[in-house]
């Protein structure tokens, strides 16, 4: 009995090992990660305090149509005289809300299904066929079809994106879970009397932390891009809700005459996606034990 408890203890210490001390300090020392944190922090502040700091983003002004950037309108005005800066700042709330809610929902749902599929073979056979079927459709086409059936709106977009994005999370996390399930420490844990629930919570999930973080970040960025694409074609958020995709759609007829209408919303969208990808790449490298800090 004593010989079986020792490996379990060692395995538990390995599987549940916390991230190395100084992770945040090491992350800040990376220039790309530091810049990404600044960009994302600015976007979060804009999303949280934007409506209190800027004017009404839907306020029309015929006399102020297509004004270039100035001291009065930092990002200029659009074809309806609406302040572009206000629409970009308030639009960050919509885009980030969709990204966080959809990304978090898809990550949680995909992780739960992946872990259960790696444990129960009958569940794996049934659910993974459904996952393969959903993944056979392009993300944007499937999201557009679901929005067309359920109707536009913030809640509808989030539900559609969760359903569209969770299969990718499920497939990647499931592959890691299957590898972890075959490790010797799992046999030692079972021999020590650990139940399936304890094994999943104490050993499998901690070992899948890195792919879960990566897939969550991917789901976050894809959700923002898909929401912007849906809003661009008028199938996403309602017209009275500012979004980066709707701002880009309004600028299609003014690409050369009013460059500020597409430059600033596009920069916000691209900056969010790039900053998230850079940050999660650095976090993944720091959490990966095979990567050494130079």
UniProtKB/TrEMBL annotation:
The chain crosses the membrane at residues 33-54, 96-117, 137-166, 203-226, 259-280. It is found in: Cell membrane. CDD domains: TM_PBP2. Pfam families: BPD_transp_1, OppC_N. Its main location: membrane. It comes from the Bacteria. Keywords: Cell membrane, Membrane, Transmembrane, Transmembrane helix, Transport. Residues 92-280 form the ABC transmembrane type-1 domain. It is a multi-pass membrane protein. PROSITE patterns: ABC_TM1 (PS50928). Belongs to the binding-protein-dependent transport system permease family. This is ABC transporter permease. It comes from Microbacterium panaciterrae. The lineage of its organism: Bacteria, Bacillati, Actinomycetota, Actinomycetes, Micrococcales.
